[in-house]
Sequence to fold (615 residues):
Amino acid sequence: MEIVPDTSVVIDGRVSERVEDGEFTGATVIIPEAVVGELESQANDGRETGWEGLEELQRLVGFDDDGTITVEYVGRRAAQSEKRDADEGDIDALIRDIAADRDATLVTSDDVQAEVARAKGFEVEYIEPDVREFETLAIEEFFDDETMSVHLKVGVKPMGKRGAIGDMAYQTIDDGALTEADLHEYAADIEDGARISPDGFIELDEPGMTIVQFKDYRIAVARPPFSDGLEITAVRPIVKTTLDDYEYADDLRERLLEKQRGVLISGSPGAGKSTFAQAVAEFLNDSGFAVKTMEKPRDLQVGPEITQYTELGGQMSQTADSLLMVRPDYTIYDEVRKTDDFEVFADMRLAGVGMVGVVHATRAIDALQRLIGRVELGLIPQVADTVVYIEAGSVSKVYDVQTEVKVPEGLMEEDLARPVIMIRDFETGQTEYEIYTFNRQVVTVPVGGEESDDSSVDRIAKQEIEREIRSVARGHVEVELRGPNTTVVWVEDDDISAVIGKGGGRISDIENRLGIDIDVRTLEDRPDGDGPSDEKSGQQNTGGMAVTPEVTSRHVVIPLEGHAGETVEVRADSEYLFTATVSRGGEIQVSRGSAIAEELEKAIDFGRTITVVPS
Fold:
């Protein structure tokens, strides 16, 4: 009797089981090299199935040594292209060919493999997969009612995050350090549960990382070389809420039911954003809306009526295209982080779908600022008209977002009227921020609050005035605001005539462009002494030149016409940011999303003067 086992029965250990039962006693067990190669590949990737299969082969060799069976390794290993196409049946085809050549019985636990073999006239022994009942996973022993996450790593004591939402503590939860055997056992149990239980599925399976969803648990198994050691992290929600559990519940219900909205749920990690998003999803579903989710990985705890989607073909944009065919009333997007995520969110919202996005942000206003540069400024209120900020599991702030055409707060001239995004407190109706363009720069300005130093409008105005004056002055320049629409500019004595221009024409042009009255005086006339102030003298000594960066969808661009090929330092006020070489086009481009760009954009947002200094 000759049998050819495929990968499925080897992994399950069913061949050695039949040998021990006496059914395969005296048989010749023909092991295809394609099976060995597939198991080796899985083991190299750190997958437990590979290790289990290799252990089964060792057991079979032991039976061969004592004469119970005869083991032969035959055939060829699968080519790399065949391994890539394993899901298409290429390796299974190699195994069937060996069974056909030897006129042997194919032994499998794969129902598709069995049906194909029967269709080709092979003798097949189909063994039902070894199905275990998975009510719980072994890792669940580390969880109690207050445990949100468990962190296991080889050589380290088990750690966990325990406490209430917003008040979690990362602490040791067991005294014994874990061995590699312990972690392999937990990982095998997790992967078996995901494959076998209807309550589990494998969300991601890549070399070095497997992500599993089992009931309420999202579990990540990381392996070398992706991680420096075998590590398992399991996370679960510790509370499930309804919209009634939150402040502003009645008003939020009315707002969500009035029409399809664009909502950004923001907050710090662990603040309870996803828990609130789940509550919103359940409320909308109970209110008669068709609700779907977009998640990677899928871990929102919602009812079976709400279908949870993940990436299609590795891209959320393709998921969005599919959902637009489904036409949900509302889609919950968890989490919106990268530029592609914001673009997908905006596209679906502009297509008329109600969107609820979960965004990491430490302030409510920061969630809206994530859209700047990724979405056309005038479209932001159409994309997100509501911002909910979650702190310690509670609704801390709600913003209403609208557009008005007006003169921005702090500016006076009527001809400075422009579209302004108004961010108002949902409860009081009081405007807290305005977002608009000022001399090609998008600015976010607090409204109504007291600031210890210059207001944001003042800082922006000073920066723009200084830039205009520096374009014609050769020496040092200082700007002093005297009121909402007047300023004094102090320049070197040699620059007075150049700044004022013939008949005052040049300074009049600058005043008209900026909408502010400018009084030009010499630095020697300053009442606090001769020459530049101490605060600015350091900047003058560096030979710094103020510039106005432009923020595009992909880059932060610093214009430096006439300085192509020069190496310069870029500074915010007097603080060094980075060194760069000016391109042949006379500019420096910094890719958005990089650490340098984030520092530069932060400096711009805070109204700091950006200068370049020869390196």
Notes: The chain has five domains: 2-126, 138-235, 243-446, 453-537, 542-615. Residues 542-615 form a domain with the Elongation Factor Tu (Ef-tu); domain 3 fold (CATH 2.40.30).
